[in-house]
Amino acid sequence: MDHEMHYFHLKKRRSFLLFIFMCITLKTALCFNISSTSTLTFAEAYSPLFSKFNIQRSSDDKTVNLILNRFSGSGIISSDYYNYGFFSASIKMPSEYTAGIVVAFYTSNVDTFEKNHDELDIEFLGNVKGKAWRFQTNMYGKGSVSRGREERYRMWFDPTKDSHRYSILWTPKNTIFYVDNIPIREVIRHEAMKGDYPSKPMSIYATIWDASSWATNGGKQKVNYRFEPFVTEFKDLVLEGCIVDPTDQLLSTNCTDQIDQLIAKDYSTITSEGRRSMKWFRERYMYYSYCYDNIRYPVPPPECVIVPSEREMFKTSGRLRNKMKFGGSHRRHRRSRDARRRISKGDN
């Protein structure tokens, strides 16, 4: 009986240590949450953007599948424009062979300000079977497409197995990109950015499309339609912000109270725990950053905060000094795996 009790307590202790490891090192949603948000049905939030025949809505209208096949991709657009806000969706990516495919969740006002548009992007890049999905974030302001502010990352999970929440916070002061509950990138508005910081009302988009010309290995791997249809699932739809007419000239006055409420939300400020999570992510999974690309930008753009632990990771091209294998991870992350093995063996 003593032996059984000892085994029980040892097993319980190992489970506790594994949980602590997941909280501190893996930063899972078990440990902290973005403040509660209200989800919407498709009809309350979005409208078809293109290829309605490739858009499938669930019976309760809370889930929408976007399909890419040999005929077309598909996309949806928010029914309203927002003057700043918090935009989120749980997304599950297509599986199998997905080379050449791009799934995007982003904000834009290109339909209203064609040559002067703002945009905030999260783009997911498919891959050949057995290789990890990658993704990138970007920011454009006032048509600044020649001054892209992209960062590129690899996933620390398989986005085809389960849905994961991806979010964009956009305020007059800062922009934060979230994956699940982890802030992976923050852009703080700097006066010297001028019009490069998005400031005009935007719609929210979700799309899947054929980007064979560039998405995978510079276009070497194309979409293979033998594996069609490619289906991406969107649910837990969140659109929070000030709904506006984009041609209204009094936007800031009309939305002052709602913008103040947005800035006061928990997810509008990164906590000390969030800072540790972001550092963990960026030092292990970011493989390109424009802030460290001294070839494109000999003088880093004004919003860039040069972090020494990140700086040492990158060449002057903004790419990693040590090549990252997309089935693996950074050298530093191997120590985390070693720690996990020690925990599983009961070593202290």
Automatic annotation (TrEMBL):
Contains at least one intrachain disulfide bond essential for its enzymatic activity. One of its GO terms (molecular function) is xyloglucan:xyloglucosyl transferase activity. It comes from Penstemon smallii. The keyword Hydrolase applies. Catalyzes xyloglucan endohydrolysis (XEH) and/or endotransglycosylation (XET). Cleaves and religates xyloglucan polymers, an essential constituent of the primary cell wall, and thereby participates in cell wall construction of growing tissues. Its EC number is 2.4.1.207. It holds the Pfam family Glyco_hydro_16. This is Xyloglucan endotransglucosylase/hydrolase.
